[in-house]
Amino acid sequence: MRSQADITRGMPVTIEVDGQMIDSFSGETLLAALVAAGHMRLRNDQEGQPRGFWCNMGTCSECFVSRLDVTPVRRIRACLITVEDGMRIATRSISYD
Amino acid sequence: MTNSIHHYDVAIIGGGPAGQAAALVLDQNGARIAVIDEQQRPGGQILRQPPQEFAMAQSMKGKSYTSLKSQLRAFEALNRCDWIGGKSVIGIDRSGGTVDLTLASGDGITQVSANRLLIASGCYDLPIPIPGWTLPGAMGAGGLQALVKAQAVVPDGRVLLAGTHPLMLIVATQVIAAGGTVAEVAFDQRQSFLARLLIKGAGTALRNFGLMLDAASAWATLRRAGVPVTFGQRLSVIEGLNRVSSARIGKRTVHCDAVGLCYGFLPQSDLPRLAGLSVRWAQPTGGWAAEHDGWMRSSVSQIFVAGETSGVAGAPAALLEGQIAGAGIALDLGLIPMDEAEAIRRDAARKQIRVSRFAALLDRIADPTSALTALRDANTILCRCEDVTIGAVETALIQDSDPNSVKLVTRCGMGTCQGRGCEHMLLRLAAHKRGVGPNELRGFTSRFPVRPTRIGDLIG
């Protein structure tokens, strides 16, 4: 949920996450956009159990997602990356095969 | 790799209170400085700033923030100092006579070289392997706070804060101010234990009235909002299917959609250990703090440390250490006469006495030892990267109680986080097995690159 208390955000930005369009704002971190969209599950562990982010400061590696709109595809920590219009992201919580 | 290597007098890793303080002293004495941080903007975690595109009126109220904010403004006004934001330092190399840093970001690899290095890389939430802590929605309280104060985003639904550290009172009020809902703030400790420590340390607490006032006003805010603040009932399990849906506090079930775990903070120690700095086990919260002399010189020449890297003591202490490190580096580089450096050091050292007493009081209050001792659930994942359970580690410890052997056998600590999540608990378990303190054990070996990096970037 985005706070509405005394705040002006940046320009609207739309990103694609696991094939779904998500509204975001310029300046937001990818992780903040995911949390605001209720997208808490970022990967599955070896037993298929759901995982979410833990530290939100670049140390735990739980928020690794793939950025598909760049070549080669990059794995990035969602908490350290700022959203960009047209960004296409695949979390590791769904299977593509 | 890029061929252009920028050279500086001083490279500072970390744009928090310690790094800023050092930069201000060094800039005043004519040093060419680069400050490198994983975050886009300066501030560190304590003053993690909203994006430039945002305007937030309520950003970081509270008395304890005042002097930190004025320092941040002064730092941002420096015009000779290069700010290198959004980049992770992944390697330190001193073989060429200078201190050469390898930096990684989404754009690839760059290099920075300097005559002196200050490591002021801060701290992170103590990872607490409680059953259910891997569920989406369970997070470090510092991570939650950063989401709220720098991004103005709150997890949906009811947020539970649980642990031992009083910071959670402040995080809870920040969640409420942002329009979120706090289910409860649950302290492990009994109220009588906290009262006894506060009375014993009353003088210290009163002399640090800024922080105490913030905590007291946080408590009043929570009371007005009808948020229960409970004591003496420990969080034992976090439950949920696809994400957090409830938690057990003592004998009660608390319905919640997110949990912020607040048991204290560990120094970021991978860069100090990579560079071979001598470190000590940081009691009582754990982790490795870099050792230093009275000028914040580490055990390795050319490298200084300041702030939580040298032991978690809070932002005011970090700021003072940064000032001393700045003076120490300026002295080392011959930029400042001894008497001037000594004056800066003496002034900061005098103020340190007060803040370090408060940090020691906070350490005693927030001590996570008994919570961690209670957490020995064999099925709970300890190493989140490699899915290694506490039970698997305990089984391996029966054969061999050397932490690095257990790492090899179980893969605990061999994942992308390099053990930042699990090392402290593995060391505690190994120490318990041997009947010694964790300080008597050898921790994990820190390896290049200390942050996950694309192989193609390194060889390209």
UniProtKB/TrEMBL annotation, chain B:
Matches recorded under Pfam families: Pyr_redox_2
Domain annotation FAD/NAD(P)-binding: ranges: 8-320
Organism: Qipengyuania algicida
Domain of life the protein comes from: Bacteria
Stored InterPro entries: BFD-like_2Fe2S-bd_dom_sf (IPR041854), FAD/NAD-bd_sf (IPR036188), FAD/NAD-binding_dom (IPR023753), Metab_Enz_Cyan_OpOx_G3PDH (IPR051691), Opine_Oxase_asu/HCN_bsu (IPR017224)
Protein name stated in the entry: FAD-dependent oxidoreductase
Alphabetical list of CDD domains matching this protein: GlpA-like_Fer2_BFD-like
Gene Ontology molecular functions: oxidoreductase activity
Signal peptide annotation: none
Keywords carried by this UniProt record: Oxidoreductase
